[in-house]
Structure formats: structure tokens, C-alpha cells
Amino acid sequence: MENPAPEDAIVASVHGSTGVEQDRGMCGEKRRDDRPEEGGTLNSGSPVSAPLETIWLQRINDFQRNEGVAKEARDSDPSIVVGDGSADHMAKGRAERQSGQSTHARERNTPAQSVSRTLSALRDKAAREPGHRFRGLSRLLDHQMLREAFAHLKRKAAPGIDGMVHAEYAENLEERLAELESRLKAGRYRATCVKRHWIAKSGSNKMRPLGIPVLEDKIVQQAVKMLLEAIWEANFHDESIGYRGGVGARQSSRELADALYSGTYRWVVEADIRSFFDHIDHGWMVRMLETRIADRPLIRLIVKWLKAGVMETDGSVTHPATGTPQGGVISPVLANIYLHFVQDEWIKKVVSKRSKGRVLFMRYADDSVVCFERHDDAQAYLRELPKRLGKFGLQMAEEKSSLVKFNRWEPDQSGKFTFLGFDFYWGRSYKNPQIVNVRRRTNRKKFQASLLALKEWLKKARSLKLPDLLAVLRRKLQGYWNYYGVRGNSMMLGKYQYEVHRLLYKWLNRRSQRRSMTWRTYSERWKTWAMPAPRVMES
What we know:
It is a single chain. 33% of the residues are buried. The protein has 16 helices and 16 strands. Strand 15 (422-428) and strand 16 (436-442) form a beta hairpin. The radius of gyration is 26 Å and the shape is globular. Helix 9 (282-289) packs across helix 11. By secondary structure, the chain is of the alpha+beta class. It has helices at residues 60-65, 67-75, 111-128, 143-152, 166-170, 173-186, 215-232, 249-261, 282-289, 296-307, 331-354, 375-391, 444-461, 466-484, 490-508, 519-528, and strands at 54-55, 57-59, 79-82, 90-92, 133-134, 194-200, 207-212, 267-272, 310-311, 317-318, 359-364, 367-372, 402-405, 417-419, 422-428, 436-442. A four-stranded mixed sheet has the order 7-6-9-10, with no helix packed on it. It has a four-stranded antiparallel sheet with strand order 11-12-8-13, with helices on both faces.
């Protein structure tokens, strides 16, 4: 689908279908750049191009045979060296070079260590040089990387249209991975249709579409996901908290509450994007990826997944012109990259600088809140946001978006907003009503959705042996307390525990034709089951 770049776009139209002409192998001099314009983001009016510096990804033997190439690679530091066959992945940093000695010190490590060192080198290079574009990344998709990716997959995940599950694929793992690697290297790899699966949408009667890839597609997607995360992590802003390792949603909710408690921010815009994953524009997605990736085979691989057909429940196959399957392994990182340019960069570099007061924002996937010091700044942002989203094929869900007054100095006239599963509102202290605090309470829709999910699980698991059922229930309860156990939310925690009591009593009595216990007997036995009690997990 054609989507010409707007005049203020972050990236200009570039050469070829993916905008990258990749050289094969090493070359004596670096190519002239046809990269997208950098320095100008998706919001800048006067982009400044930066010179291209290449991080070479090259086979060790080829590197050592060509003296001219070796000299060129020494000048480009640090470079990532990709092992060929049994050779390990190695990261070459700048080192003292002594005459007659090789700069490639080989170390025999386990596959996980080798892949880890490669990803670490990518992260370091990406953080050190924010404008650098990486080449030859597709060569990293070798046997070791694929094996590591397979180990990261969920063992009990639903299979794709071929029915292949994790345990079955693991029976001949090395042979299967070798054949998969061969297809990737020879360009014979083809993305298989994803299987459409519908699930109930949290807090709604609507259904959410999921796309489940086949296992081999999951393996390759996981490998590419690890590469993209290593490169893009340095670009992502701290305010982007969704689908990122080491970034906790509950801790982020506390940081947001602390920032609002200062009283600086008095207006909050909460916004959601309608069917975000279904409307990601493929043309824009490629252009955004090319700001950091100059590897045509890797871009082509990602496009294959974006263009893959979707097999519906009735067996028909559709080929969506936009979107990425929600449920695909690589979809979350692609979504973060897309919204990094659409929202994060725009808010940081345009909205914040143009506003007369201070601005704070936080985004979890397509759900975001932006806090403003001044009312006119908040109104201006809410007016411009639909236009901004529209440039990239997205639409704001107006029924889930609003401007809320959230003034510490006028708590009784302030409203509430929902983010990360909590309702944020101003509450007065019970001991001293003059003291107000930002309270977080479990959102009612999330509360009901959690109970519904627990009810469905108990209905299916009631035939399990009681110790096994209770062991899983303990983990579920502990996970719930760990997230929603925040200060000021004790009432909702107690209410959830009471509802769990009722549901468990109901379904334990439906394990047979006759009722197995009374409420009094059940209450006495509950005390012996060592169930975790609700408690505040924050210090």
C-alpha cells in the first residue's frame, strides 16, 4: 500500500523496496549513503543528514584472508564478527594491537554465552552511536541464534496451522534447526499463514483477534526480536514501559503517582488507539526500521511476516494490507518501534518544547497518559493528537480518551483516570482530612475480568487432584497480590479475596454429583491450605 511520507516525516523516501542497497561481503570503502534522513525525527522540519558509519558483520575466515579488509575493519571499531559454521559469535572491541598477533581471540563458550556476547556488543554499539545503522544482521541468524531463540519460546504455547508443538519439534531439534538455517541462508524461507484465534476482550463483550504463527516462524521471529531489542533499547525512552524487559508496570504506576503528588501537573490526557495492531502501516514500519537497520535481507524477512496471510476459523485466508498479528512473537517490539516515532519522539521533541508549562508522559503499548501543568497545553495536545495519529494510519479511540482535571490543590473538583489497570484519583487521609494523596485502586473492569478468568479456570480445573489445583491457585493469588498490592488498595484486595472464596467453594462442590462440604467446613479447611493472604507489596 502506497503511503508517501509527509513533508515533516522522520524518514524520507529511500531507494528500492526497503530503502537499502546492501553490499555482499566486505568492500574496500564504505558506500555512499542512501539512508533515511536522521537528526530530523518524525516531527522535525529541518532534518540534518549524518554520515554513515558501518558496523561490519563478517565471517572470520573472510576477514582474515583479506588484508585490505582487515585494515578497514580495524578503523571501524567496534565490529561484530560472526562465526561461520562451528565458529563462535565474537564481539571485537578496540584493543591494543601487537605486531604479528591476531585481534580475534577465540574463546569456546556455550551457545547461550556466544549469543549473549553478540547481543551485548550490539547493545553497546547502539547506545554509543545513536545514529548508527547496522548491516549484515541477517548473518547472525545461524544455528546458535536459532537454538537460543527456541529455548526462549513458551513450551505450552498454542500451535499454528501445522499443529507443531514445542515438545514434538524438540525431538529432532538439531536437524530441524539446521534445515531451517539452510532455508534462511539460501533465501528459501517462506512465512506461513497465521492461525486466527478469538479471545474475549478484557472488560468488554467484544472479541479480540489473535494471530498464532507456526513454530518455525516463532523461532525466527524470536531471533529477530532479540536483535531488534538489542539495537532499539538505546533509542526507547524511559517513558515507554510496555513489552520491555526490566521495566515493571506496577513500579511505573507508583512513579506516575509520585510525580502527580508533587502538584506540578494538574491536567491529564488519557488516550487509547483504536485497533492499533490491526492498523500499523507497513510502509511506515519499514521506513522506521531503516533508521537503524541497513540490512536488506532482514527487512525483507520482517516484511514477509507483515504480509503473511491469516487463516480464519472457517478455513478462508485473508491478506491484510495493514497491521501485524497480535500474538506474533515479534509484534510487541515492532509496535514499540512504531509508537516510538509516532508518539514518544513527537511528545519529547515537539509537544514538550512547544508547551508553556511542564509535560510528563507515560506509555504502555498503545495506552498512554500525558500530564500537563497548563490547561491550554493539554487542550492543544488533545486537538492535535488525532491528526498526528492519522498521518500514520491510526485513529484515536475517543470513547477511551479524555482530558481530566487532576489538581492537588483542588482535589474535590478533580476527576480520575485509568492507567495500567489502576484508577488514579485524589483521596483524603482518614486521620487528617487536610492531607490528600494520589490513590491507586483496581479498575472495576480489570477486577471483573480477573474474576471471570479465574472462574473459567476453576470450571476447567475442578477435576484436578485437590493438591494440584491448590498449588496453581496459590501462584495465581500471589501474582495478583504482587501487582495490585499497592498502598491505598486494601479494600479492593479484600473484595477480591472474598470473591475467590465464593468461586472456589462453588466449584469444589461441583466436582461430583453431591455437595462435598459446607461453608463452615470449607472455611476451616481454607486455613490449612496455606493460601497467600492479600497484603501491600510496596515498601
